[in-house]
Amino acid sequence: MSAPARAFTARHVQLLRALFAAAAAVMITFSPDHSAAVGLSVFSGFVLTTALVLILAVWLVFPAGERWPSVVLALLGFVAGMTAGVPAWRTDDVFFVVVTAWAAATGTVELVVGLRARRAGDPAARDSITLGAFGLLLAVLLLAIPAGFVQPYAIDGAGEFELTGIILGVGMFGGYAAIVAVFLGIAGLTPQRADAVATAPASGNDPAPAGHGGER
Questions:
Q1: Burial class (CB in 10 A: 0-12, 13-18, 19+), 155
Q2: Could you tell me the pTM of the whole model?
Q3: Which residues are CB-neighbours of 117 under 8 A, at least 6 positions away?
Q4: Furthest-apart CA atoms within the chain: distance in Å
Q5: CB under 8 Å to 138, separation ≥6 — which residues?
Q6: What digits encode the pLDDT tens for the residues 66-121?
Q7: Do 25 and 174 touch, CB atoms closer than 8 A?
């Protein structure tokens, strides 16, 4: 007898994560204010909602023995999101410390999970490796922005402006969210690969490691 279809699968996890990443990217892109307050506010909402999806996936998607990556990623998201959610802490320094630490930690987890899954022949390993690489790249880019960076510039007919480190940092996060949204959206719309991971343990064959994603 075939296993009953799951109401919530790895594909749904990917699509929900893509939705939240897209929302963060849109809010950053269309906001004229790229301050630490705005950046941390958007970041907090993004990582907290993603963490909730990952917690649901622990019970609804991934089999026993394959749940730890989602638990770890969710805990990292909750810690970073709650820290970024404190209005009094929304400074430039806190933005760079929190977002960089979160990107480095989650990127490392995603990469390790993906490499282990690839050795086990999991078809979803590439998604996890790619998301891990995106997270680590974000961390490196944020670390590369000089502290206190200020670059004045002028636009004819518009006036004089300043490009600051926090503007670059918030922009980098927005770009990261946009790339993740597109990547996870494409992955989530490929049900043959994503759903196979979630249903394999119930098919009677050897269970393959469940696919995990960036904030999976």
A1: exposed
A2: 0.83
A3: 124, 125, 128, 209, 211, 212
A4: 72
A5: 99, 100, 103, 107, 172, 173, 176
A6: 788 999 999 999 999 999 999 999 999 999 999 999 999 999 999 999 999 899 88
A7: yes
